[in-house]
Amino acid sequence: MVSTAKCRVITQAVEYEREMVEKEKTFPRQHIRRWRLLVQAGAFLLLIITPLVNYYLHIHFVQGWYQSLGIGKLWFVSPLEGLESLLVAKIIYLPLLIGMVVPVLVAFFLGRVFCGWICPVHFLSDMSDRLIHLFARKKRRKDRLLLPRQIFWFVLVADIFIAMVLGAPLFVIFSPPGLIGREIMRAVFFHTLALEGLIVVAVLIANLVTSRFFCRYFCPLGALLALIGGKRRLRIHHDQDTCTECGLCQRSCPLGLNPALKEGASLYCWNCGECVEVCGPGALCLRWETRSQGQRGE
User: Fold this and answer.
1) pLDDT score for 13
2) Separation of alpha carbons 197 and 159, rounded Å
3) For 6-44, how does the pLDDT look when each residue is reduced to its tens digit (9 = 90+)?
4) Angle at the Cα of 28 (from 24 to 34), degrees rounded to 5?
5) Mean pLDDT, the chain, as a whole number?
6) Which of 66, 141, 175, 214 has the most CB atoms within 10 Å of its CB?
7) H helix intervals, the chain
8) What was the pLDDT predicted at 28?
9) In CATH, what number is assigned to the domain containing residue 239?
10) Are residues 179 and 257 in the same domain?
11) What pLDDT shows up at residue 135?
12) For residue 171, what are the domain limits?
């Protein structure tokens, strides 16, 4: 006869398997990296195709880049660039406010998904990481320079202050994500590049020192989106009981966060899902939380 202890072990194993199946239903972690890459590539391809279609085919249904993107009669404006423009002009421009509505709502419910899933800087950083891994056989480099995370917020305050007091929309002019779209358009329309494009090169080189150095410390757009998404519904959920504390999630996080300490639910997380992808026990998942769950911290 099977002993009581063996029955208990078998029952626990069955329950564990059932829990794992339920976690897989929450968000299939083995597909997150693949879907993110497809979304990133599609977003970057849009930046390339749009000026080509505008210039050679004279089709203007889609215009601009992610600072200000027009699709038909709909215009989408980056929240920070829109805010800077309002502060510099010192007038309320209704079409600009309307153009900011959709990006603000996306950030409010989903958090910094633009940073983790759409931003061309993150896409180029991901591609450079893959190339380095291909030739150097290193999945993750050690961060050599760590700064206080609070710098993130001071940069946002400084950017808003400069726009409001000095009338200089610095991020509109020198935004690395905006520069990528602008340089692609300049290359297509004018067959030349501007020196400002070297800022993007500097941002990518800084990744060799610390993973996502600019995104982690000096991107005011990321800081603003993080604030807007402070009460976001889509979060990285951590199951304390399932976690083996292996540390793999922290080593895989591009921003150096530790999801095992629930930093995946913090303002800094951009919901890229990389930690969920590498978590073998399934202790992490991307989960849509209800208001009651968010208040209880579940």
Assistant:
1) 46
2) 20
3) 555 455 544 544 554 454 444 444 589 999 999 999 999
4) 160
5) 88
6) 175
7) 4-26, 32-52, 79-89, 94-110, 113, 120-136, 151-161, 170-174, 176-190, 198-206, 213-217, 220-228, 248-252, 274-278, 291-296
8) 47
9) 3.30.70
10) no
11) 80
12) 28-230
